[in-house]
Amino acid sequence: MSELSATRKAALWVGVVFLLGAALGGMVGYSYEHHLVSAASTPLPEPERRAHRLEELTRALGLTSAQSQQIDAILLQRHTEVKSIHDQTDAQIDQVRQKGREQIRAILTPEQKPKFEEFLKNLDQQRRRNSSK
Question: Which residues of 75-95 are buried (b: 16+ CB within 10 A; e: fewer)?
Fold first, then answer.
């Protein structure tokens, strides 16, 4: 009888250790993956992105130093042009957004307008957080 009891105790301990190991492994795995994802989702500043892209091109194509310098200048110029287009487009989008908000304000009651302004404040904060990511 005591032999059966010892066997059950041993099996129980093996099961407990297995479950604890699985739980701990899952937590460590989740933590590690979460760290990798959050680190990967942090965007690099433009100069660092450009340097990384240039390094990749240099390695993949076997660029000379002169070619690397020329390509870096090209990448910088294209970035400047694209940023200018984005800035213009963002300004146009903002004008359309403001026009829509004014149209909405025109049909709201005096009681609704403060609620709408609070709604817009929250929306703008969320937009700023998302654009900075």
Answer: beeeeeeeeeeeeeeeeeeee
Q: Which two tokens stand for residue 122?
A: 């929250």
Contact criterion met (CB below 8 Å) for 108 and 116: yes
Kindly give, in sequence order, each residue whose CB lies less than 8 Å from that of residue 104, ignoring residues fewer than 6 positions away.
Answer: 116
Whether the Cβ atoms of residue 47 and residue 72 lie closer than 8 Å to each other: no
Q: Which residue has the tokens 């340097």?
A: 51
pLDDT along the chain (133 residues), means of 10: 75 88 85 68 83 94 94 94 92 94 95 95 89 64
Query: Which pTM does this prediction carry?
Result: 0.51
Residues 20 and 26: their CA atoms lie apart, in Å, by 10
Of 80, 17, 79, 14, which Cα lies nearest the Cα of 53? Answer: 79
